[in-house]
Design goal:
The complex is a heterodimer of chains A (about 425) and B (about 180). With about 425 residues, chain A is mostly helical. Chain A has 17 helices and no strands. Among the domains of chain A are: about 60 residues; about 230 residues, no CATH class. In chain A, helix 8 packs parallel to helix 17 and helix 14 packs antiparallel against helix 15. With about 180 residues, chain B is mainly α. Chain B has two domains: about 100 residues, Up-down Bundle (Four Helix Bundle (Hemerythrin (Met), subunit A)), CATH 1.20.120.1200; about 50 residues, no CATH class. Helices cover about 70% and strands about 0% of the residues of chain B. Chains A and B meet through helix 6, helix 7 and helix 8 of A and helix 2, helix 3 and helix 6 of B.
């Protein structure tokens, strides 16, 4: 039994490929907990960043700099009364948030955090991701219909029309990236998420820079379509608060409402992960060919520790800058403890980076490599998550006819043209 | 390779998975035709389509399963719901349902049942004893080979595939012509 549980350690395969259900379950639990924590952190970060964009302070009262605000929010949402409107379709109303949540979280089984740091590697990885994430719209549509109310219905209609039309451009952009994987000696491409990153590794270029500017245009098309797919500003017509109160989730309250929020942020992380995997080299660190060698390897392996050290530094700076009034004493202590925690994590990461600096296949070296892969993947995803907030603070919402015109008359022809050009250039180059 | 890892061992696709998926498909299929509320029918149809996708996975056809989810569950059913949502449910629930062509339907379903029963009873004689085992890893490449040809040779189904795409193009053009008054 113990042998079976430990057998996965040191395997170059994902637990799904190795057929080890125990480690697959562990990975699923880690991803589930991790995504939930990231969603809470995003909640805080979004409110804080938006506030600073608008020259406000944002949450400041619950904990130092509002750090405990997400926990307070989660508690509030769990304790709130769960209202189901009398005229609503009870069963569909109940099942709608679960559909959205299931679709958002199922996608994570194939996201490659590293060459073996994924739950499973499917032969049809990217197809599976697109398919399951397109089921998320069903949750929105059923929620809007089951509420039996005008605003949610309009929100659901808008959302389904929007997601169906942007899915087309998104799919064509993805296909042009998949075409690029087939430019090897064998001439066969791959749909597997891990295979796509390995193709970029073999060809020595991120697909963003391949056939410049074709790869970059496809990436931009995807980056726009993914904002529309997740119903975020400036494409948040489904929940336009100035027109539709809260759109499809107007009638939802408490825990059910928070499930919608969880699904939305999980879907944002998932589409960012698709973009990172397809165009930004997935788990690879920057310049793996140009800056190669053990010295550069060691320098880049210090980055995870440096990130946490920088965060700890900011936290200590905040502790010093806290007003010296007895009212802020507890907050100051709390922030200091949080900074110490971050500094401790940074210390552990530095120790691992130094202990595993020789790529000799020892446990320390493998741990160091695993941390590097996951760090670079998450770093790239984090950039996209920040962009989501930035978009929301910058751009006004589209009108519905503008949205449809951009989707069908601008993005679709461009992505189709990029696909054809990529195929032609690919044939000529090979 | 670590011998403890059961790579290439017996697949997890046991009969119980088949029973579960088949039961889900049949029960939700029955719900599709018995629910009076059209949205409930559509949701049950989605469950049917997803269970069929699971059955494709059990047949080592992951590509077909993925396309089934994308095209039917994710695309067509969303458009279905989009239309059905706008139908007034109160009226359709109260209205007496009628169907004047039920004798035709009865005949068709009886014929289908007879076909299934004969296939079930004579299947051993009709079908080859051992099916070709398609490995999961190469299934997608095999489909591409059949449709587009491999290694400079035309695929077995390239012509039929292209004709089908022409048919779809005609359907798209027809839809455009029917909706546009002036082109």
């Amino acid at each position: 039994m113990l042998n079976y549980i430990m057998s996965y350690l040191g395997s170059p395969l994902t637990p799904g490929q190795a057929g080890n259900q125990f480690w697959a379950l562990i990975y699923v639990l880690i991803i589930f907990a991790g995504v939930s924590v990231v969603v809470m952190a995003m909640n805080w970060l979004e409110r804080k960043a938006l506030a600073h964009f608008q020259i406000r302070l944002g949450p400041m009262r619950v904990g130092p700099h509002g750090l405990l605000q997400p926990i307070a929010d989660a508690l509030k949402l769990m304790l709130k009364e769960d209202i189901i409107p009398a005229e609503a379709d009870q069963f569909v109303f109940w099942v709608a948030p679960l559909i959205g949540l299931l679709a958002a979280f199922t996608v994570y089984t194939v996201i490659p955090f590293g060459p073996s740091q994924a739950v499973s590697d499917m032969n049809i990885g990217i197809l599976f991701m697109l398919g399951v994430s397109s089921l998320g719209v069903l949750g929105i549509v059923t929620a809007g219909w089951a509420s039996n109310s005008h605003y949610p219905l309009i929100g659901a209609l808008r959302s389904s029309a929007q997601m169906v039309s942007y899915e087309v451009a998104m799919g064509l952009a993805v296909v042009s990236a998949i075409l690029m994987t087939s430019l090897n000696t064998a001439g066969t491409g791959t749909l597997s998420m891990i295979g796509i990153v390995q193709a970029q590794q073999q060809q020595g270029v991120w697909f963003l820079f391949k056939f410049f500017p074709l790869g970059a245009i496809a990436f931009v098309i995807f980056a726009i379509a993914m904002v529309a797919e997740t119903n975020r500003a400036p494409f948040d017509l489904a929940e336009a608060e100035s027109e539709l109160t809260a759109g499809f989730h107007t009638e939802y309250s408490g825990l059910r409402w928070s499930l919608f929020m969880l699904a939305e942020y999980a879907a944002m992380l998932a589409v960012s992960a698709i973009a990172v995997t397809l165009w930004l080299g997935g788990w690879m660190r920057p310049f793996p060919n140009l800056l190669s060698g053990p010295a550069w390897e060691f320098i880049f392996s210090l980055f995870p520790g440096l990130t946490f050290a920088a965060l700890a530094g900011f936290t200590f700076l905040g502790t010093i800058r806290m007003p010296s009034h007895s009212f802020f004493k507890i907050q100051r202590i709390g922030l200091g403890v949080f900074g110490l925690l971050l500094a401790f994590i940074a210390l552990v990461l530095f120790i691992i980076a130094i202990a595993g600096r020789n790529a000799d296949g020892s446990l320390a070296a493998r741990t160091r490599e695993g941390i590097d892969y996951v760090y670079w993947f998450m770093f790239k995803v984090a950039i996209f998550m920040y962009l989501f907030i930035w978009y929301r603070a910058t751009w006004p919402r589209y009108r519905f006819d503008q949205l449809m015109r951009v989707g069908w008359k601008v993005m679709l022809p461009i992505s189709l043209g990029v696909l054809i050009l990529t195929a032609i250039v690919g044939v000529l180059v090979k | 390779m670590n011998p403890v890892l059961n790579v290439g061992a017996a697949p997890v696709a046991t009969p119980w998975f088949f029973y579960g998926l088949a039961a889900a498909a049949v029960i939700s299929g029955l719900l599709v035709i018995t629910r009076r509320n059209a949205v409930h029918s559509a949701l049950a149809l989605i469950i049917t389509l997803l269970s069929v996708a699971g059955l494709y996975l059990m047949l080592y056809a992951p590509f077909v399963a993925g396309v089934q989810i994308i095209v039917y569950a994710g695309g067509i059913m969303v458009l279905f719901l989009f239309v059905i949502m706008l139908v007034s449910i109160e009226r359709s629930v109260k209205e007496r349902q009628f169907n004047r062509i039920w004798p035709v339907g009865l005949f068709a379903s009886c014929a289908l049942l007879a076909l299934f029963l004969s296939a079930f009873s004579k299947g051993k004689a009709l079908l080859p004893e051992r099916m070709v085992q398609l490995a999961e890893g190469t299934n997608t490449e095999d489909i591409a080979g059949f449709l587009y040809g491999r290694a400079g040779r035309m695929g077995e189904y390239t012509f039929a595939f292209e004709i089908a795409s022409l048919l779809l193009l005609v359907a798209i053009l027809g839809a455009v012509i029917m909706t546009k008054k002036k082109i």
